[in-house]
Amino acid sequence: MTQIPAQKFTAELADLFLAAGDDFISKSVPELELTYEGIVGDHHAGLTRKSGGREPWYKRGTDMRNERQVSLLSVEEVAIIAERLDVDHFDAGRIGANMLISGLPQFSQIPSRTQFFFPSGAVLRIDGYNAPCKIAGAALQADYDGRDDIELGFVKAAAELRGLVAWVERPGLVRKGDEIKVRVWPQQLYQPAKA
User: Fold this and answer.
1) How far apart are CA 23 and CA 16, in angstroms?
2) Where exactly are the structural domains of the chain?
């Protein structure tokens, strides 16, 4: 079985966003306070959340652990999505970003369990990939008059580039411009032998 050893990287926290309203659309802010419940004042904060379409194994609306407290995107991948959509750039807050990270190649492929360490002592634990949806595409389309193709086009353009979701492992303050120390745990591909 092939095993990849633990890896360490550094990255930069390029921008921060808070979804302080009744939906996921977020606005740029200079800092965020992280607690065990997530980002203070954010739409996705909470120790638990209600299950939805991503969890068909539960009846919709079932209380479950909130592993989606923080939405992270990559500066580099957002640029690729914009290019695929044929727009100059877009506001990552329109698709619900909380953190925009720079300097981590293949960002959306970062595996589960990876930890992001911030100077304050705050730590995020990556849950996994955040698949694109047409709801985020519709929010983005609202910024582009006459571009009725973006709502559904976003799903295709953002495939494998939509970023990650995470939960707060250790509370603290994070600030725009922070250096992030990234620890990727050892990995091996799980492929049980066929009987």
Assistant:
1) 17
2) 3-51+62-187
Count Cβ atoms below 10 Å from residue 54 Cβ, excluding itself: 10
**DSSP readout, 180-191?**
EEEEEPPEE---
Q: In the chain, which stretches have pLDDT less than 50?
A: none
Contact 99, 70 (CB under 8 A): yes
* Strand order, beta sheet including 38-39: 38-39, 31-35, 172-175
- CATH numeric code, 3-51+62-187: 2.40.33.20
AA letter at 4: I
d(CA 129, CA 146) in angstroms, rounded, equals 31
pLDDT at 190: 83
Tabulate helix, strand, coil % of the chain (nearest 5).
15, 35, 50
- pLDDT at residue 1, as a whole number: 66
* Whether 135 contacts 141, CB under 8 Å: no
Question: Which DSSP string do the residues of 89-104 spell out, in sequence order?
Answer: ---GGGGT-SEEEES-
